[in-house]
Structures are given as structure tokens and as C-alpha cells.
């Protein structure tokens, strides 16, 4: 999908979360950056901009200001995240602006994060740390990782990286995507895969099909020994249902990096559950991630300037990048 | 090394730690088990026994009672551990009794334990759990595992299993053994490998050569970012030296499953160090490990009874199983 542009300096609205993207200024050539940290600021800077970079992927500001703001100049929206759920709303998708994401930056780090959660459960790491605080020497038996069964929902680059890494350590892995393909189970096969699942990994995009996919009904199909690992998006899970299942021991544990509301409210019961490993939406954020995100955006901006095809164009129908291309 | 035996029931002294080996009675046929939990009890039961099983591999009782006890009937000593350091003392080795160990039972579980420690450091798991206890949402950047450098000391089955698993997740692994071999660095090459080591894994047997191998001098060769993982034996490390290096930040962290004195005394400063992951000598002990140990001993006992070659015979010169064979 070539997107041509004139030779005048390009105006780029940048929605950030208070911290301006490090190194962005030096990476975008003569483009004019128009920074915004709040919906009001975004509404002010967005008119006249051809490009919008949503650096703060947790913000709903774009959707909030869209209807009342002149976006007639906008031709490209890039999000500094793999998931596009904050910007892939109908009015934006229907505006003709091209949407791109940061696919590829997070794949391997997120896979390592998932493997870390799996081994932490198997080797009882949280309990070891708790006993360490109490200066208590208490031998326990732990679990094998090799030979256990992982069901990975999401057959995009992140899900594939997770499946590959879990397979490399000897787990039996089933990858579940939207449709069946070689090595990929169709989403409607998932219920049949849950009963012998030891680790259910959610690495799917948040779409109408996947929203709320893990609820009391699907949890009921999991064995009691099962653990859930969610590195996708919080709303893939009906959080109250999962919380209840963890509280009653219906399933054995959960490692949650994403939540329905982020930051997770301080009164959530998840904070204090012993069978929950909780982290603040950071599974993909290894040292250097911001530099990689800036480099990816800068490369796409050069393509935009030259009228070349952009990388990581999101399919407006599906809500994620639907073809191969760079990882 | 065939070990023949008569047709009379075999007498087996069993040194245990208070818990008799589960299922042992049913696994040894008509052998007579003579149980001992203390040095005094061992001194009482050992005379006349052809076989000694040291189920409690943390006890020094065999060495304590050896000189004053009649062991003239003893022809085979089997230890329910990979390390033989508690029984491979000169008087026993020189007695003509064959020494066997439990090589193979712990390899893969220990490798998974080491990988778990590596990922826990890279992904800052202990800090995530500490913040979780405080209900604090604090995003951090974590580290990649792939591409980091591991130096694994110990080229026996455990070290090899560790090296294989760390390699499978994309780490660059150097294996260090007693002597150079294909894919194995000689022990005297170790100083040259330490300066670019991210993770130093100790999985070596405790011998005169390896005792105290990690001390202030060798720690000084490690970069500040290095972490040490010890799943071998505590005395491989001069514990005070390591504790000091961890306290001053000379190195970044340590995951310690073994200690100079076990259980680790409650007043050890290691318990409360934030950069230490401490566990109670359990790295190889997955669910079912006792059954596997009993099965291995029972198989060897049948071989002993029939005069066939025993599995896992320890080389008295080296203090570990020196040839291939079953894993």
C-alpha cells in the first residue's frame, strides 16, 4: 500500500505519556514533531498533521478526541506497540489513514517472559523467595517443564515466538490462530485443546473474536493443574472470572502482565494471591526497546516521505498485520 | 567391573535422614534392609552388610563411623545423589568397595532449574514479586536471555544437560570440564572465559581440584553484570568471598541451591540479599525423584545379586563417573 507524500516537511503528532520518546527528535530528519501528552493537547496539535505516532499505547486519547477534531490531513497512524486495539476503532479505520504497528520488536522478549513464567511456576520460585524472606530452609519437590503441554493462543509473530521457545525446552506446544493452517489450530478448536493444557498462553490480538475469550465457561474446560499466562491484552480475559477461579483453586495459577484496567487498581484481589505472578505490562520491554521502536518508526517515516510501502501495515478488517514481512 | 555375590539374601545398610526411602522395601526383593538414621545406628547395622545405600546424601555419618566399624563385608556403596563427595573419602575408596551414584536422575530437572534462575534474573522476577506484595505498579526494562554468555563448569551429565538447555534458548554456552575435549574447555582455561561471562553456572563435582574454585581472585575476573548459579556443591565456592562480592555489587547476583553448611544457618547474610535467589538443595528434586532413585538402586541391586556390571560406577581416582553409559 504505497503512501506518497510531498516534499514539504512532514508534521507528526506524537501522543506520549509524559516522557517524550528518547532520540525521536534526531531520528526523524526534518519532520516537525508536535508533542501531546493529554487528550486536550492532542486535539490541539492533531489538525494539519499527516502523521500520528501513538507512543503511549495505553492512552485512549485518539479515540476520545477523534470526532471533534479535524483529522482531514491525517494519512498515517503508527503505534509503538504490537497491539493496535487503542487506535483500531471504526472511525479511524474508515478514515483512509494507514495504520501500522511495531510488530517484531517484542516477539522474542515476550517469549522469554512467558518461558520465565512457566519455569517460575514449575520450580516454585515465588515460594522459594517467600521462604527466603523468612530464613526458612524447606525442601520441596518441583515439577518438570519438559513434556508439559502448552496451548498458545495467537499465531502472529509473538505467539509463534512463544511457541518456538517453549518447544525448544521440550514442551508440547499447540498454536491456535484465527483459522487453521499448517501447524496452527483454528480458534474454534480451542475448547478441545483446553482439557489437557498445563499452560494456556494468551498472545492474541484483542479483537471482537478474542475479547473475553477466557471466562468461567472456558476456564471450566481447563484441568485444575493448569496455569494461565496472559501477555496479550487484559480484556482477552474476563478478569473477575479468572480471579474467582484462582481464588477457589479451580486452576493452579496465573502470570498476568496485562489487565482490564491498567495500572491494576490497588484494591484488586489479584495483588495478594499467592498463585498469581503479576507484572506491569512490561513483558516485551527489554533494555533498548525504546531505541528499537524509534528506529522502526524512523524507517517507516522515511518510507512515507519517499512514497514507498510502509512496514507492518495493519489489516483494517482483522485488526492486526495479516501478512508476513519483517519480524 | 563385575561384582559377584552369593545366593544368600543380601544385607543392605541404609543411611537415611529420618524418612525411610518410600517403596524401597518392595523394590529390593529378598534383600534385608538395615536402616540407620544416625552415626550410632549406622555403626550398629553396618558390620556384616555387603551393601550400603546412602539415601541421606547430606550426612557425613559414613566417614564418621568408618574407622571404628567393621566394614570387611562391604563390597558396594551406592549414593542417592549425583555427587559422591560424602562417601568418596580415601579409606572407603581404598577399601575395594565399588562406589556408584545416581547419575542421570537429576540432569534435566537441574538444567531447568538453572534456566529458571537465569530467566528470573533477566526478567527481574524477584523484584516483580516484591512490588506485587506492595501493590505497586512499576514498569521496568528487563534483559534479553538470548545472546547472553553462559560458562558452565562441569562436563558430566548435569553440566551437559545445562549447557544443552541454555543453548536451546539462544544463549552462547561454553562448557568447562577437567580436561579439554570436543566442545569442552579445560579447567585451566576458565580464567580466560570469565571476563565475558554473563552467567557462571557451577555444576561440577566436588573434588580437590574444584573445591573453593570460586573465590575473591576468580570472582575478580567476572564482569559486574555477572550472576553465579551454583547447583553443584556449596564448597565449590568460598562462601564468604561470594557473599562479600554480592554485598558490594562486585557481581550482580547469585542463585544458590547449595551451601558450605546445609541447611544454611539462619544468621547467614545471604538470606536477606536482594540479588540472591536462595533454595534448599532441591534443584534436581522433581516430583517422582525418589521413585526414580529407588528404581535405579533396585536395578543395580539386581545386577549386584547376579554378578553383572553395576551402573554408574564412580572412578575412585577422579571422584565421578568417568565414562558414558546410561543417563
UniProtKB/TrEMBL annotation, chains A, B:
SUPFAM superfamilies: Formate/glycerate dehydrogenase catalytic domain-like, NAD(P)-binding Rossmann-fold domains. The keyword NAD applies. CDD domains: 2-Hacid_dh_1. Pfam families: 2-Hacid_dh (PF00389), 2-Hacid_dh_C (PF02826). Residues 116-283 form the D-isomer specific 2-hydroxyacid dehydrogenase NAD-binding domain. Transmembrane segments: none annotated. Keywords: NAD, Oxidoreductase. Belongs to the D-isomer specific 2-hydroxyacid dehydrogenase family. PANTHER family: 2-HACID_DH_C DOMAIN-CONTAINING PROTEIN, D-ISOMER SPECIFIC 2-HYDROXYACID DEHYDROGENASE NAD-BINDING DOMAIN-CONTAINING PROTEIN. This is D-2-hydroxyacid dehydrogenase.
Amino acid at each position: 500500500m504505497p503512501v506518497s507524500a510531498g516534499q514539504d516537511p512532514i508534521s507528526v503528532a506524537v501522543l506520549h505519556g509524559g516522557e517524550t520518546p528518547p532520540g525521536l527528535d534526531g531520528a526523524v530528519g526534518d519532520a516537525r514533531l508536535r508533542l501531546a501528552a493529554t487528550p486536550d493537547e492532542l486535539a490541539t496539535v492533531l489538525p494539519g498533521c499527516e502523521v500520528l505516532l501513538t507512543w503511549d499505547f495505553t492512552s485512549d486519547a485518539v479515540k476520545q478526541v477523534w470526532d471533534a477534531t479535524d483529522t482531514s490531513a491525517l494519512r498515517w497512524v503508527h503505534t509503538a506497540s504490537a497491539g493496535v486495539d487503542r487506535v483500531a476503532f471504526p472511525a479511524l479505520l474508515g478514515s483512509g489513514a494507514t495504520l501500522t504497528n511495531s510488530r517484531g520488536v517484542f516477539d522474542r522478549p515476550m517469549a522469554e517472559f512467558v518461558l520465565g513464567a512457566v519455569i517460575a511456576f514449575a520450580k516454585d520460585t515465588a515460594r522459594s523467595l517467600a521462604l527466603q524472606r523468612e530464613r526458612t530452609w524447606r525442601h520441596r519437590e518441583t515439577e518438570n517443564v519438559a513434556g508439559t503441554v502448552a496451548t498458545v493462543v495467537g499465531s502472529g509473530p509473538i505467539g509463534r515466538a512463544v511457541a518456538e521457545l517453549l518447544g525448544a525446552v521440550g514442551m508440547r506446544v499447540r498454536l491456535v490462530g484465527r483459522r487453521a493452517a499448517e501447524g496452527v489450530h483454528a480458534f474454534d478448536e480451542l475448547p478441545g485443546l483446553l482439557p489437557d493444557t498445563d499452560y494456556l498462553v494468551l498472545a492474541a490480538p484483542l479483537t471482537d473474536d478474542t475479547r473475553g475469550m477466557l471466562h468461567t465457561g472456558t476456564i471450566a474446560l481447563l484441568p485444575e493443574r493448569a496455569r494461565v499466562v496472559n501477555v496479550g491484552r487484559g480484556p482477552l480475559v474476563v478478569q473477575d472470572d479468572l480471579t474467582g477461579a484462582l481464588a477457589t483453586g479451580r486452576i493452579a495459577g496465573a502470570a498476568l502482565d496485562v489487565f482490564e484496567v491498567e495500572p491494576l487498581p490497588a484494591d484488586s484481589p489479584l495483588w495478594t494471591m499467592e498463585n498469581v505472578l503479576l507484572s506491569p505490562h512490561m513483558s516485551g520491554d527489554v533494555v533498548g526497546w525504546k531505541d528499537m521502536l524509534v528506529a522502526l518508526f524512523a524507517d517507516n517515516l522515511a518510507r512515507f516521505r519517499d512514497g514507498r510501502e510502509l512496514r507492518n501495515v495493519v489489516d483494517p478488517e482483522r485488526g492486526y498485520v495479516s501478512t508476513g514481512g519483517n519480524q
